[in-house]
Design a protein that fits this description.
hydrolase; six-stranded antiparallel β-sheet; fatty acyl-CoA hydrolase activity; Thioestr_dom; mainly beta; elongated; PAAI_dom; Thiol Ester Dehydrase, Chain A; 13% helix
C-alpha cells in the first residue's frame, strides 16, 4: 500500500477465495475493499484510529476474475470535526477497466482528541 496526504493506492491479486459461485469477484469483497481503503485514506491524513463507517455506497461497473489484479485508489476528500468523506475507485490493473467505485463516510468525532493523532489538516482539530 502506498499513501500520501489523504490518498492511498493498493493492489491485490484476485484469488479463488475472492470469487462468488459464478467464478467472478464477489461483490462483498469489493465492498470490503472500499471500506478498508477509504478508512486507510482518512488514516493517511493523520487520524490514528478511523473510528467507524457510517455510510458506504458501491457501484458495480464491471466484473473481474481469478488471476486479475485490482488497483484500488482512495482519497479522503474532506475531514472535519465529525466525519471523514472518502471516494474509492477499483480498476483492473492490466487493462484499466473500472470495476467499481464507491464512497465511504466515517465518524471520527469520538477519536479526534486522541493525543497520538498527527493531523495534516489543521481544520480538523477540535
Amino acid at each position: 500500500m502506498d499513501s500520501t496526504d489523504g490518498k492511498i493506492s493498493f493492489e491485490i491479486p484476485i484469488q479463488e477465495h475472492h470469487l462468488n459461485a459464478y467464478k467472478s469477484l464477489h461483490g462483498g469483497m469489493i465492498a470490503s475493499l472500499i471500506d478498508f481503503c477509504g478508512a486507510m485514506a482518512s488514516a493517511s491524513k493523520g487520524v490514528r484510529l478511523t473510528s467507524l463507517s457510517t455510510d458506504i455506497n458501491v457501484s458495480y461497473v464491471s466484473s473481474a476474475g481469478y488471476g486479475d489484479t485490482l488497483l484500488v485508489n482512495a482519497e479522503c476528500v474532506k475531514l472535519d470535526k465529525t466525519f471523514a468523506f472518502t471516494t474509492v475507485a477499483v480498476h483492473n490493473k492490466v487493462d484499466g477497466r473500472l470495476i467499481a467505485q464507491g464512497r465511504l463516510t466515517l465518524l471520527v468525532a469520538s477519536i479526534l482528541n486522541d493525543p497520538e493523532n498527527e493531523f495534516k489538516n489543521e481544520n480538523a482539530k477540535l
